[in-house]
Amino acid sequence: MIASLLFSYSSYILLLPMKTNIKELTQTIIDMIPTSLRFNAHDEAVFQKFKPFHEKLSEKFVKGFYDILFGYPTTQSIFKPDERPLREPDLQRWWQRTITGPFDINYWSWQAAVGVIHIKRKVKNPMMISIWGWILLTLQKEFSMNYSLQDTFEAMDSWHRLAITVESLIAESYLHNYIVALAQSTGTEFALLDRLVAIEVADIDPKNLS
């Protein structure tokens, strides 16, 4: 089964050139997400509805985000000791763009590009996925303390679709660009690289892993 999935992935990456066009990659990833789970026009309207509240959360969000990352040795290790003041404005810009929109191909391509940045900075996907978990938990707490149950559900429903879309873009872009770099550095074609991987994992039984 793993081998078949890898061969399927090989077919997907062959649709893209060795030097990735980020917008093409972005659209390819988005197309893999079931439509009902993608961030959509209704969600964008919901974000506009709650924009004043989102703006009030800005400073608290940025501080809490980096308190988590700098408070845990594994995630703290990816930063330089004096780097936090440089990174906070970047997150602030992301927050403002996200709560304002528009959610066009440029926005989604920006999210996909984060996958490349994470490779460079050695940010692993569990770090990215877990901090998104913190974002959602924090927002749910804030909304539940300030809005009705119905409003909280509406807001969080849209935030969850944003998280699904952004996490998918970052994680798959990370994988794709990691393979691009490996293929280019070794002079190996995508298809051959995937076949080699498939051969190596074909006989691995997850039940026997220890």
UniProtKB/TrEMBL annotation:
<dbReference type="InterPro" id="IPR012292">
    <property type="entry name" value="Globin/Proto"/>
</dbReference>
<protein>
    <submittedName>
        <fullName>Globin domain</fullName>
    </submittedName>
</protein>
<dbReference type="InterPro" id="IPR009050">
    <property type="entry name" value="Globin-like_sf"/>
</dbReference>
<dbReference type="Pfam" id="PF11563">
    <property type="entry name" value="Protoglobin"/>
</dbReference>
<feature type="domain" description="Globin-sensor">
    <location>
        <begin position="37"/>
        <end position="177"/>
    </location>
</feature>
<dbReference type="InterPro" id="IPR044398">
    <property type="entry name" value="Globin-sensor_dom"/>
</dbReference>
